[in-house]
Amino acid sequence: MECMMDQCAIEAGIDPEEFRLGYLSGNESDQSRMARVIRLAAEKAKWGRPLPKGHFHGFAAHKSLNSYVAEVCEVSTDSEGIVTIEKVTAAVDCGIPVNPDVVKAQIEGGIGYGIGHVMRAELTLDEGAVSQSNFHDYETFRIYDLSNIETHIVASAEAPTGVGEPSTPPAGPALANAIVAAGQPLVSHLPMSSNGVKFLKRVKICDRFILGFFWQE
After folding, report:
1. 132-144: average pLDDT
2. What CATH code is carried by the domain that includes residue 97?
3. DSSP annotation of 187
4. Number of structural domains found in the chain
5. Which of 34, 50, 176, 191 is most buried, by CB atoms within 10 Å?
């Protein structure tokens, strides 16, 4: 849905943030709360301002579990089109933030979960059995795939709502829209790494040790 919103914004020649806000002109609480997180995420990510050469922004927003989350994903690409995820800036309205540190931790975890799955996490079946057996053939998300997440919490007097999962739905679309902004085609099949998107790969010594341990087991 959020990728389609960007495609429509492109066709209309309207900035993706403004395009979304154009459908949130009502005064009811639901629309105003969504508009607030969209504006906050855009402001904190410096949406619309010049980025370093080879850097691009993608936008997405979603409401789930009665919470509102907007995210701006910043990526960079090199001369070969290899994508590096530089940063995600998130804004969340989850009512009264009872414990802001927990809210931020949950938002960060949800973003990693969402991006990790659309990037390359893939399970395949062979005659009804899962082909992958461990982390050497199931590439999960690593902390160095995205080391910079910035979360901003909207001050609210509304009743507290969920923070465990609301940041997951917009994470993948924000990444996909950023990749489109970099001049690559929109990926309509997942995971991205199996459908034409090349991500920067970093293999750490700890990964080699852990995977070697699992293989020995």
Report:
1. 88
2. 3.30.365.10
3. P
4. 1
5. 176
Q: 152 and 57 in contact (C-beta within 8 Å)?
A: no
77-102 residue pLDDT tens: 999 999 999 999 999 999 999 999 99
Give residue 147's domain range: 2-216
DSSP per-residue codes, 145-168: GS--EEEEE----SPP---SSTTH
How far is C-alpha 11 from the chain's CA centre?
Answer: 23
Report whether pLDDT(109) > 90. yes
- 215 versus 185: the higher-pLDDT residue is 185
Distance of CA 19 to the CA centre of its chain: 19
State the Cα–Cα distance between residues 139 and 214, nearest whole angstrom.
14
- CA distances to 32, 50, 52, 212 from 68, rounded to whole Å, are 10, 27, 29, 42
User: What pLDDT, on the 0 to 100 scale, is given for residue 16?
Assistant: 97
pLDDT for 217 equals 45
Count of CB atoms situated within 10 Å of the CB of 188: 8
**Mean pLDDT confidence for 185-210:** 80
User: Which residue, 193, 197, 189, 192, is CA-closest to 80?
Assistant: 197
Quick one: which of 118, 103, 110 has its CA closest to 88? 110
- Residue 17 neighbours by CB under 8 Å, 6+ apart: 38, 39, 42, 47, 48, 59
Q: Output the DSSP codes for 61-113.
A: EEEETTEEEEEEEEEEE-TT--EEEEEEEEEEE-SS-SSHHHHHHHHHHHHHH
